[in-house]
Design brief:
It is built from eleven helices and 13 strands. It is α/β, with parallel strands linked by helices and 350 residues long. The longest helix is centred in the N-terminal third of the chain and has 16 residues.
Length: 350
Amino acid sequence: MWLWRCWRPLGAVLALLPFVVIKIRLLLYRYFLPVKNINIPVISVGNMTFGGTGKTPLIAWIADYYQQQGKKICILTRGYKRKNHLPFLVVDARSNLTVKDIGDEAYLLFRNGYYPLVVTKHKQSGAEIIEKKIHPDVILMDDGFQYLKLAKDMNICVINSLESPDRLKLFPAGLLREPLSGLKRADLLFLSHSTEHSLEWIKKIIRSNNSQSPIFRTAHEPIGLEQVFTRATLPLTVLKGKKVGAFCGIGFPEGFRSTIQSLGAQLIYFKTLPDHTDYSPKTLGFLKSWSSNTDFLITTEKDAYKIADLDRIDLSLYFLKIKLKIMDHENELKSRLDKLLYSNGPHSGN
């Protein structure tokens, strides 16, 4: 704790340099540098902070909604920490690419039927490929809030409502990628993990920087358990009163912890690993030893796909299947998504 107290003043000073750089970059793209427009609606889902906020579940929710309306979606994503370094990867129903090839978050979307995906760090060029070869009704761009080279028809910002106010400072003093004034670029704002706690403080921050755009509350709703290696399913009720060990390598592990506890489980231990952790047989050996005193060993879906990619071991491991729940104004959100596809207006910009 004392290290954090010492670091914060120094971090505030160091943050002045990136603050200036960020402001100059925003001004350059607003007035001087070219921004690519394409003839397909682009929805960007991003955030203001480093770490997990819930972008991927929201992309899945939007993709699922459009697919239920009979629309063709295409997801544009970087594929963070992927091992296949080809500049562009197109992922569709015929693909036999692995989680290592495209990254854990892209693979999670793929396995849940949200494809095609174009995986590239060159998002502008990726959008051009999508426009010329895939012809979807809409492009869902992952982690695009700070990406300014491509015009967007809807700019979504996701904020973790459980984040500490002390950490909403510009990196390295806090977790912000850019000043909070950047919230004014958001067309829609989503507060993730927003259930019973007060949201007044974070709404006040939002409204001091963006007084117009609607705010939607979301929650991660558990819907079942699946065995990592066999994909056998169990109802959530089996966890009530049981001794559970859990681990994860995600951006916001506390959300996973609270979800397990909300199901009535006795959480015997909870192990946090770095986000996007690469698992090895040695790691699985440790996991097996930890599970000896528990009734269930549980991880997240994102972690599960990386573990399933390894050789199977004698380990009874389950992952918690979740879906995003829109807590309020769901019909308004759907109306805005519908309107976007039938509107012929210009891009809103960045």
